[in-house]
Amino acid sequence: MKSSIEGSNPSDSVPPTGELGTKAPRSPFRFPTPSRPMPAVRVRFAPSPTGYLHVGGARTALFNWLYARKTGGTMVLRIEDTDQERSTEAHTQVILDGLTWLGITWDEGPYFQAEAGPKHKADAEQLLGEGKAYRCFCTKAELDAAREAAERAKSSFRYDGRCGRLSAAEVQGRLDRGEPFSVRLRMPDEEIAWEDAVHGRISFQGRDLDDFIILRSDGTPIYNLAVVSDDIAMRITHVIRGDDHVSNTPKQIALYRAFGQPTPVFAHVPMILGNDGKKLSKRHGATAVGDYQNQGILPLAMRNFLALLGWSPGGDREVLPEPEMIALFSLEGIQKKAAVFDTTKLEWMNGQYLSALPAADLLPPVTRHLAEVGVSTEGRDLAALVDAVKVRSRTLLDIAHQVAVRVDGSRVTRDAKGDALVAKLGDAFPGNLRLVLGVLEGAEWTAPALEAAVKALAEAEGKKLGDLMQPIRVALTGGTVSEPVNELLAVVGRDESLARIRRAAGL
RNA sequence: GCCGCUAUCGUCUAGAGGCCUAGGACACAGCCCUCUCAAGGCUGGAACACGGGUUCGAAUCCCGUUAGCGGUACCA
């Protein structure tokens, strides 16, 4: 569970200059010191606290974390709470808890973006002073009207940069009159391209982008400015984030250029889809990490499953212990295509962990789930109970349910298959149970002895072993599925087992 | 509309020009094991979106088509 930073290999790190292919004239001093030491990797996970921790966000966090651990770099956590309307402290806590649950740790932060407001504003003013940005006096209403008109005329709207051509005197005049203004970045007419670590080269043309707003008329920053300003300040070298940000990237690169800063390496990871191929959302069921925790998924299994969703270690590996996951991780191994979230495979993965983990590791969550359903295991060997049922379980909830049935006779309810067996055996059902009772009452209550006793009975009576064992199983659990019957008897205990058999036999 | 991204079994993926008669995993079906189920083992069905190139040779490279997704805000 503890992350192993030791053994990670920093030689895998990539120099953080992903930008390339600019058609604009290049400065000969662009790469002044080729021999400069390679900066240490710094990545960040930057969620917005406007809801729970979504599985997509969790996976983005996981990839950042894996990359940091792999390269010996630093993981910083930044809460992007500039949307004061929707951001809440409770959401922040849920996100932090979700990451912690998954075993995703961070080395710096959490930083809160809203606290950097004054710096964002100062950065915008710096650009204003250098003529790389300009004041725009167009109002929201005017802009909306223009956009609507363009839409009606079936042509595309792009801000024409008219305020960028205002004379100094004109600007001063409007300022003197106290007109409100936003700040826009001058978008240069040049190619903006970068070598994306997962997609390869991606290219946009500056002329296709308009002079976008970086500072609202109330002086607060727009997302793209805040992100770039913070990423520069935090010396982020690798931006690993969702695919939905690729169209923001050229705008952000324009900002890096305006600030005269090198761009980080960008790695855009694909989306996670629901089973209908649409973006994963609430109507697909559980999308919050916390939901899976409540459904009895182990954090290790969740993390393993998430890692394999959109990333492949390259071979046929499925169950990956943490050290291997870190050692094998690479940005190049990330898939370009969106992936469908397959709950069935998640549960299979969870079953793998359930089977492999010692019962002791499962005790705390199982105890919690048992408490939720009101079952006490006071004075019982819970580890033995868990061991008895865990290989047949896919979730911790399954385990808790099965343990509950073994501990508390009042929870035995006959299921459809149990009913079918009773119907099939007819009189032999109570009859065989009475026979069994006869030998069990005098038997030594250990699994091997119980097995021997029932087998001897079957032989003596000329009955099939299954016709003796299955009724016991139904008597003790209500169903036809369980661990071997002798072990079941041992786990349920002598008095309780005999009582359940008597009841089922109608005695 | 415009800009960008993507395209291998139902799903997750391997595959970086010949090793591909396209491999593995989940799911599904059958068999084995067995007191049931699970696990495990074996077997089976199941995919390179389409069309053009390039090449002695293409799932792999190029172009186009189609489809899906993302963006196109004084949201993040």
Concise synopsis of the structure shown:
Helix 12 packs across helix 13 and helix 18 (465-477) crosses helix 20 (494-504). Helix content is 45%, strand content 11%.
List keywords for this structure.
elongated, 20 helices, mainly alpha, three-stranded antiparallel beta sheet, 13 strands, 507 residues, RNA-binding
Low-pLDDT stretches: 1-35
Task: Determine Rg (CA atoms, Å).
Answer: 32 Å
What characteristic shape results from the CA principal axes? elongated
Helical stretch tally: 20
**How helix-rich are the residues, as a percent range?**
40-55%
Strand line-up of the largest beta sheet: 1-7-8
Structural class: mainly alpha
Oligomer: single chain
**How big a fraction of the residues is strand?**
5-15%
Overall pLDDT score: 87
Number of strands: 13
Task: Measure the end-to-end span.
Answer: 51 Å
